[in-house]
Each structure stands twice: as C-alpha cells, then as structure tokens.
Amino acid sequence: MRENNLNWRKAMRSTLPAIVAVLVVAAFPMGDLSLALAADHMNLEEGIPVEIEDALPTAYRNIEIQGLFHWDREYNGDDRFTSEARLELGPFRNTQLEIDVPFLWGDAVEEDGLGAVRLGALYNFNQETLLVPAFALAGDLELPTNDESEGVDTTLKFILTKTIGRSSVLQRIHVNGSWKHNSEAEGDEREDYYVAVAGYDVRVTPDTMLIIDFVREQDEMKDEEASIVEVGLRYQLTPLTVLALGAGAGIGDESPDVRVMVGFQHSLTFLHF
C-alpha cells in the first residue's frame, strides 16, 4: 500500500503541468471569443479572505489567478501556515473550473511542503429573483500529492446566495453546506464529516466589500470540532485585480485561537487578445 501511494504521488506530480494545460485549453475553444472585461470583486471565493463562497461562477471565458495565505494559531498553541496558488477558469456559461496547489508549514503540520492538490468545479443553476435565491453545486477532488495524504478525498458543497433589502446599499446573505469524504480514513479519523458556513456581505464603497461569516466544522480527526467567526474586506484595486484581508477567532476549546488571511485575484483577460 505504501509503495502504491508513493507511485501515485510521483505520477500526480509529473502530470500536474498537463492537468493545468488541459484546463487552460478548455477555456479557449475555437470560435466564440466572448470574455470578461474586469475582475468581479462581488464574486466571493473560498478563503479570499473568508470561508464563505457565493453561488456565482467566474465570468464566461474568464481566466483568473488567485493566491492566498492563511495563518492559524491552533487551540494547542501550534501554528499552521498555508499558502495556495489557484487557477480558475470559466470555459462554459454558469460553470467554473479550478486547480489549487497548497503549501503547508508550521508546528501543526507533520511535514512541511506540498499539500493535497485540489481539482474543483462549480455549476450555477439559476439567477436569483425577488423571492428565489441563486443556487450552485460544487465538487472537489483532493489528490494524494504529499506524504500525509492517502487516497482521493472528495467534497460536495451546496451554495445559496440571496440579495436582501431594497436600499441602494447592496447586501447579500450566503449559506454553504459541505460534505467531505475521507477515502482512506485511519483509526483516529472520520470517514465522513461536514462544514457549514453562514455569511453576510455589504458593499461599503463602490470598490470595497465587508464580509462576515460563521463557520461550524468537524475536523478530520475524530472528536474534534470547531466554531470560527471571520471578518474580511475585499478591495478592487484595478479593474482586473482584487485584494483581500481578513481575520478570525475561534469559539470553544477545540477551535483555532486566531486566524489571519490575505489574498488576491487577478484576471488574465488580456490573454484573449
């Protein structure tokens, strides 16, 4: 089993460039060259800067690079640092594809280095109306690309977004519910666990958004759960670039003491020309 996992990780590391190339090619079919002309700072992305995600996919034909850095001070005093590079594509209408490559280090990590590479997709089912919210379904595959991961883990996420109020100030509420499956759980790990997030955002200036969310999640380790309150700001620096900054605090004995998040999004629409 150990030898098979090592061979799988080596194979995935060697094919990652090909996976990225296939995703990029998928975003550029010949013919229709419709494109997004700006980054959308209203489109909330997981982890940039808080956990809540909205039901809006990236713009049709958009290509976007994203980066994020998270620092968690765990309840036991250990530190976990995560930096992540993400490529996001909109090859079809109402559809979003992405590949995430994380790097982990700190006392809370068994071995510093490459984390589990994630392939994800999101599909938006509808535009919201006066009474009906927007709905989306997202799915992820986490590949065993590091020494700590075993098997291909999966996530299924349900996303709801609804605009509230009738004033000139844009306000929205969001609900995320995720089911995670640990394909090769060890004795002290859960095979299935959940993450639930409720969030609110408001546009405080034409270029700035305030986001607040509450995260309730089960950890992969048995008998560990966490509750976290997060607050973040997203600022549209240029038509193609969004900057994000956030912080969070845990509630309860097993929750992280503190969390700090920094991120950015940059649309590569110029590649269409």
Tag the structure with descriptive keywords.
globular; Porin; single chain; mainly beta; 273 residues
Describe this structure in words.
- With 273 residues, the protein is mainly beta.
- The protein has one domain: Porin (Beta Barrel).
- 9% of the residues lie in helices and 49% in strands.
- The chain contains 1 helix and 13 strands.
- It has a 12-stranded antiparallel β-barrel with strand order 1-2-3-5-6-7-8-9-10-11-12-13.
- The longest helix is centred in the first third of the chain and has 25 residues, at 2-26.
- Residues 20-36 have low confidence and may be disordered.
Short précis:
The chain is mainly beta and 273 residues long. Helices cover 9% and strands 49% of the residues.
CATH architecture: Beta Barrel
Radius of gyration, whole Å: 19 Å
CATH names the topology as Porin
Strand order of the largest sheet: 1-2-3-5-6-7-8-9-10-11-12-13
In one word, what is the shape?
globular
Integer tally of domains: 1
Helical residues, percent: under 10%
What share of the residues does DSSP label as strand, in percent?
A: over 45%
User: What is the CATH first-level class name?
Assistant: Mainly Beta
